[in-house]
Amino acid sequence: MKSVKSKLILALGLVELLTLGMAVVLYLGAQRFEEDARRTRQANDDLRELLDFSLSAHAYMDAFGRSLGQRTLIANRERRAAASAFESRVRRIPEMHLGRASLQPLDWWRLQRVSNDLSNGLQAADSLRESGDFLRAEQRFAETRQTDFNEGMLPWFAEAISTLEADAKARETHAVNGAGWLRGIATSLACVSAVFASVAVLWISDAVIRPVRALVAGSEAIARGELQHRVRHARLDEFAVVIDSFNRMASTIAATRESLLEKNKHLEQAYRTQSEFVSVVTHELRSPLHSIRGYLEFIEEDEPSLCEQSKKNLHNIGEGAKRLLRLVNDILDFSQLEAKQLHITCSRFALGPILEEALYDARALLQGRSVELVLEGPEGELFLDTDYTRLRQILTNLLTNAIKFTEHGRVTLAVEVRGDSVELLVRDTGIGIEASQLDAIFQPFRQATRAGERAFGGTGLGLAIVARLAELIGAKISVQSQPGRGSEFRLLLPNDASRRMQLTG
Amino acid sequence: MARILIIDDDPVYSDMMQQRLTRAGHEVSVLVGPFGGTLAARKDGLDLVILDVFMPGLDGPSLLDLMRKDTVRRPKVIFCSSMDAKPLEELAKQHQADGSIPKAGGRRDLLEYVEFVLARRRISVR
How far, in Å, CA of A183 to CA of A181, rounded? Predict the structure, then answer.
């Protein structure tokens, strides 16, 4: 499983390993330099030692020569001191080469031998001088100086110096090479580390960014409504878990939507069936009512001699039939509105006559009540472009409603024109509506009543029909009311109905 | 005076219509239900058929189409239904009937409309 976490661990581990390797290389290089420095220091010491030796040999020769010439006590003392110093140096020859790697290749035995010869020659010269034979002593000194010092010892020192020089040169070369090698290794390791770190960053960021991008694209697709969209994952990592649960969520959403759509279809079907049923039933209910009204007319016509009581009874039957017809019509209208079976047909007509007709119809409902019906019409003739029948129905329903709830006072039908907008108002001085019930009055089967009693007749569909018809013709209905003082319904006609209107006169 | 045939599946309503028209002086016959409608419409001297729209088995518009195919003589036909006036009018136009009258109308509406249709020249269609 190449999870993002294991990728991170792998990348960091490799970078760590490279850094560690670099540290080890640097440590080894430093050790090598230290070793070189130590050996160079040692070679210096050796050189100093050899220099001391040669100086002491030279001092001995010098003091000896001087003592031969001056023959004073001081010169003799100096010669002895130089002799003992040289002798002690010579005695240290066997230990001089021990542990000195740079001086190993030198022929120490030769130095020993030359030194001994020098010492012996000088001692022989010294004993000749002691015996007073200065001439032979000088001769012997000259011989020793020529043979043992110049031809024996000095070449050895020349050789020693060249050996040390070669060693120093070798060490220098070694150090320079080591430094170059170290620089190369460190540079290449740094480069590899940098390259690797970059690759690791790309690798890991790709492992993070790609699934995130896929998830973002997936959620956008689902937001657009493409519920069949699924996010695919190439690897099994942490994001695969997220993507799997995302896909499960998408499937659940799709399944839920499917089932909701299915249910909605069923509901719509059920609703349509119900509406069709109501429509058929109300049609069937209407036909016999028309028959009843027809027959009542015949009776009234055929029997003019009927007694007053019978006339009154027949009249009541007629009124009952009319009311029943109105109720059935309301229910039919409402069921058609709910089933969206009503369509509007726009035509251009004058506003004045439709207001007059609505008031004429409403007057028949007063039934002797002391309610004044008032029309506050617009100045001049106003033309509208909307559905005539529906507007007429809205006005009739509003007026019927106002009259139903007004015992005395007045019901006003008014028109307000402000700029391009036309508003029709139905105002009454009736019982009014409680503020808490204002929202509910446009709901079907509701009447704003006190204590929940149905004090007034009707299906409670009138205002629900008004609200739906207003919506159908694109008008806005609103209501204001003060309980006990009266109500005011405002119908704001749509702009395109009034935009095309014309005011004349 | 005109000869009028009422075709309606509601016997009570058609009886009421018959009385209304008879009282106005017309000679009215009634066919309850749609079947036999084409035959009844062939009767000589028939001026007007008042045809119900919703009838079980065969609805008014279909019966009208049959009558149009069948008869050489063509009496005027108007639809009469408890539908609303507007859709009924549309339906009549669509089936080239000579007019329509909703059942909701009163006696005066019916008689005036029948006189109007009878007096009018046949709408030349097609």
Answer: 5
The answer to whether residue B126 is domain-embedded is: no
By CB atoms closer than 10 A (0-12, 13-18, 19+), residue B101 is: buried
Q: Nearest-5° angle of CA A93, CA A99, CA A104?
A: 70
Domain count of chain B?
A: 1
pLDDT tens per residue across span B60-92: 888 888 888 865 667 889 999 888 788 888 899
The separation between the first and the last C-alpha atoms of chain A, rounded to the nearest angstrom, is: 88
How high is the pLDDT of residue A450?
A: 43
* Dihedral (CA of A422, A426, A427, A432) sign: negative
Burial bucket for residue B55 (CB in 10 Å: 0-12, 13-18, 19+): buried
* CATH number for the domain whose boundaries are A343-504: 3.30.565.10
Sheet holding A381-387, edge to edge: A346-350, A381-387, A503-504
Q: What's the burial of B33, exposed, middle or buried (CB within 10 Å: 0-12/13-18/19+)?
A: middle
Residue of A nearest to B12 (CA): A291
Residue B72 covered by a domain: yes
Identify residue A355 by its one-letter amino acid code.
L
Q: Encoding tokens for residue A248?
A: 């499960």
Interchain contact B123–A (C-beta under 8 A):
no
Nearest-CA neighbor of A361 among A400, A317, A322?
A400
In the numeric block, the tokens 């005695």 are attached to A91
Q: CATH no. for residue B23?
A: 3.40.50.2300
B54: contact with A, CB 8 A cutoff: yes
| Cβ proximity of B71 and B38 under 8 Å | yes
Q: How far is B80 from chain A (nearest CA, A)?
A: 11
Q: What residue of B is the nearest CA neighbor of A293?
A: B106
Inter-chain residue contact B82 with A294, CB threshold 8 Å: no
* Alpha-helical runs (H) found in B24-123: 37-41, 60-70, 85-94, 107-119
Give domain status of residue B125, yes or no. Answer: no
Q: Determine the topology of domain A4-200 in CATH.
A: A middle domain of Talin 1 (1.20.1420)
Is residue B17 a part of any domain in this protein? yes
- The domain segmentation of chain A, as residue ranges, is 4-200, 231-341, 343-504
pTM: 0.50
Residue contact B13–A294, C-beta within 8 A: yes
Give the CATH fold of the A231-341 domain: Helix Hairpins (1.10.287)
Which tens digits make up the pLDDT trace of A394-404?
Answer: 998 899 888 88
